[in-house]
Amino acid sequence: MRDNFEVRRYDGAGRLGKLTVPRSSVTVETPALLPVVNPHVQTISPAQLESQFGAEILITNSYIIYGSDTLREPALADGLHEVLDFSGAIMTDSGSFQLAEYGDIDVTTPEILEFQQQIGSDIGTPVDIPTPPDVSREQAREEWETTLERLGVAESVDTGEMLVTAPVQGSTHPDLRERAAEEAAATGLDLAPVGAVVPLMNEYRFGDLVEVVAATKRGLPANVPVHLFGAGHPMMFALAAALGCDLFDSAAYALYARDDRYLTVRGTEHLGELSYFPCECPVCSEHTPDEVAEMDDDDRHRLLAEHNLAVSFGEIRRIKEAIRRGTLFELVETRVRGHPTLVDGYRALLDCVEQLETTDPVAKESFFYLSADSARRPEVTRHHDRLARLDAPEEVLLTTGQPSDRYEESWRLVVPFGPVPRSLSDVYPLTAETPDRLDRSAYVAAADGIARLVEANPETTFTVVHDGWPESALDVVPDRVAVEGYTPQEEQD
Predict the structure, then answer these.
(1) For residues 471-485, b (16+ Cβ closer than 10 Å) or e, as one string?
(2) Which of 16, 53, 63, 115 is the most exposed place for a label (fewest CB within 10 A)?
(3) What is the CATH T-level fold of the domain 5-356, as seen in this structure?
(4) Does 208 qualify as catalytic in the annotation?
(5) According to its UniProt record, which residues of this chain constitute the active site (predicted)?
């Protein structure tokens, strides 16, 4: 793939980046939201998307334009940017959505790519086969092979400076997704959209979604920007960003507004069920739910769409700031508490902790322990891996209390990390902020750290002194370790 993407900062697999779009001489900062613009019906104009919401990039459907008697000729004559009145980057879909919905379309990959190039699209898309979730491996493999053939055809089309995507399919078979991503990355194309995942999001199958995206990421090099097709709800942006998704396209802001639905970072509300607007955007500050409900359809839908966009773009900015500060995991943990299936997605994300750890920074501002899931974060795994490489002296005390001169060395026990040489006590993440009432998972994680250190130092004699650890954690401590308990009051006496 061509080198058009620069990663500036990581947090987990989440990243701040710059996508260079050469045709319009535009640089898009990622993560980025691409509002979907229907070329026929625009609840919010592209010019307003740019001026009011700061949209740097949008997406529209070239197949609709291609088949429209009223849009095709103006787009060919004046260009897509002029027709839409948008100076940022424009990405175009190819009709694959219509293919998935209706079973066939009357355009080939060369025809639609040439058309996208002719109308001035900045990022074009070939006609891939969107394979839905839960199909057989055989169907998923056969349809991916067809898509791969079309990617090969796309490489041969003269698209000039227009970037071209290489959609990754494979249904809900992670190994096929990973292989498909590797083969897509081997093309000379530019972006890797994760395709056919909208059904998973519509059915709130966020655990399956995470497995699909994580597998796709394993097959891609770091310099490939990843587009999560159809990820339009702000409640899952942070989770998707933590997986390493860079681009999100949203038609939800308009589609939900037409159904009187109101987006929040915790889910969706219906306008008729709201007595107060729980938001500070201009729409919500200047109107009440009753006032908006009494408006005519056009005004009501426009205001709801403006709110939905404000929430969506606000969440993207919040994610960027979290990545910059190294607090993306804290944001994700906060967001996923809005729905049990998002918790499933977060736990599936943490199942990929070794994958996340490869790009997670070794130093950040802070580590907040917010739940049992925090014990599985990459920082804890990294510390355990480092413990296995440490050489311990002949006799070591591991204690939650004060050091003792009776031992050659006294190391701290820091929950959830485990043993910590005192010289590292002020090093991130061992300065973690934790609640006083920790859950059992935190102690079990610390005990796992003890086990890793003990295993790596078979000649060392270890003694553990703890302040009331639960039995589930003490059971993890190797049998050859002497274990003693104390209370803080005993230590003072």
Answers:
(1) eebbebbeeebebee
(2) 53
(3) TIM Barrel (3.20.20)
(4) no
(5) 93 (nucleophile)
Over residues 406-425, the pLDDT tens digits come to: 999 999 999 999 999 999 98
Strand partners of residue 189: none
Residue 86 burial by CB count (10 A; 0-12/13-18/19+): exposed, middle or buried? buried
CA dist 486 → 118, 126, 462, 464 (Å): 76, 66, 17, 11
List pLDDT tens digits, range 119-139. 999 999 999 999 999 999 999
What distance lies between CA 128 and its chain's CA centroid?
A: 23
Which of 93, 122, 246, 360 does the annotation list as catalytic? 93
Reference 93, options 56, 131, 65; nearest CA is: 65
Domains of the chain: which residue ranges?
A: 5-356, 374-485
Give the DSSP H/E element, type plus range, for residue 455: helix 440-456
Q: How far, in Å, CA of 304 to CA of 283, rounded?
A: 8
Q: Known binder of ligand: residue 196?
A: yes
Report CA-CA distances (Å) from 29 to 33, 51, 329: 10, 16, 20
Gap between the Cα atoms of 152 and 154, Å rounded = 5
| DSSP H helices in 157-190 | 174-185
Name the pTM for this structure: 0.94
Cβ 81 vs Cβ 87: under 8 Å = yes
**Residues 232 and 263 sit within 8 Å (Cβ to Cβ):** no
Among candidate residues 189, 96, 199, 97, the one with its CA nearest the CA of residue 146: 96
440 Cβ neighbours under 8 A, 6+ residues apart: 372, 470, 472, 473
Tell me the DSSP string of 17-52. EEEEEGGGTEEEEESEEEEEE-SS--SS-HHHHHHH
The owner of tokens 């944001």 is: 331
DSSP strands (E only) in 46-164: 57-61, 89-93, 123-124, 163-164
